[in-house]
Amino acid sequence: MERKIAAADGTLLSVRVTGRPVGEGGKPALLLADGIGCDGYIWKYVRAAFEPHLTLVHLHHRGHGGSAIPSDRASLTVPQLAADLWQVCDALGVDRAILWGHSMGVQVTLHAAHLAPSRCAALLPTCGAFEKPLTTFRDSDVGTRLLPWVRRALAADSGRLRSAWRKLMPTDAAYWVAVATEVNGRMIRRGDFLPYLDHLADMDPSVFVDLLAAVAEHSARPFLPALSMPALVFAGSHDHFTPARLGAELAQLLPAGELCVIPGGSHTAPLELPDLVQLRTEEFFKRNHLL
């Protein structure tokens, strides 16, 4: 089921609800939170595995996919995206949710758990940093140094950069650049990754960059010790965007944190070794009476 839900500021958010009816069997819903520039491609195998058992709620972040770009760009922040998650849950009648975040979605779900810990049944942070990811991108601060230049270039752009963005993203060249720089081309199916490039091509690049600037300043570290719900942290051993050591640190900082390293996995590990992710998640869910 696809529907539109208005956030507190009036921004229309696109939400897809699949799987079991909300609240069936007293089980929490499984809420999926994307990374920047994503509209759900990463959840393909997660959906197939868990739709028969749970209610799945997938929200397009504001400015992504079918969700509107907010009239106030200042609302493109991690706390606002986290508040959007609970706003959607309220509209759907979801009392408690398992929060599964990928990439930027890790910061968003950690912040959402901080906002309403009693409503968060469990956390599954996947291939993401818990604070200031540009300072650790590819184990350097290159992202931090490049971001101001990119923002200035977009501000001065007469449309040429946006046109080039739309033309280059959904191409074979963009895919092979991704394989050369991050994605494990030996483990991922090309067709599983192309939807990401298609969505990037349609996305306003200024929204992407505004959110990148927001996550660059956000840190969940101060409130991690208070997040006592069960947590399973996934990290890719070959994730250069968010190195596996960040997942290990997050698992240590969360009181009930566990770590699962995906061997050979990159930033798209859930698509590269989906069977391992599914089996480890099923075991975690059953042990914590979530499935």
How does this model look, in words?
It is a single chain. This protein has 291 residues and is an alpha/beta fold. The chain has helices spanning 44-50, 78-92, 104-115, 142-155, 160-168, 172-181, 190-202, 205-217, 244-253, 269-272, 274-287; strands at residues 2-6, 12-19, 29-33, 55-59, 97-102, 120-126, 231-236, 257-262. It has one domain (2-287): Alpha/Beta hydrolase fold, catalytic domain (Rossmann fold, 3-Layer(aba) Sandwich), CATH 3.40.50.1820. The model has no long low-confidence stretch (mean pLDDT 92).
Tell me the layout of helices and strands.
Elements: E1 2-6, E2 12-19, E3 29-33, H1 44-50, E4 55-59, H2 78-92, E5 97-102, H3 104-115, E6 120-126, H4 142-155, H5 160-168, H6 172-181, H7 190-202, H8 205-217, E7 231-236, H9 244-253, E8 257-262, H10 269-272, H11 274-287
Parallel strand pairs: 3-4, 3-5, 5-6, 6-7, 7-8
Antiparallel strand pairs: 1-2, 2-4
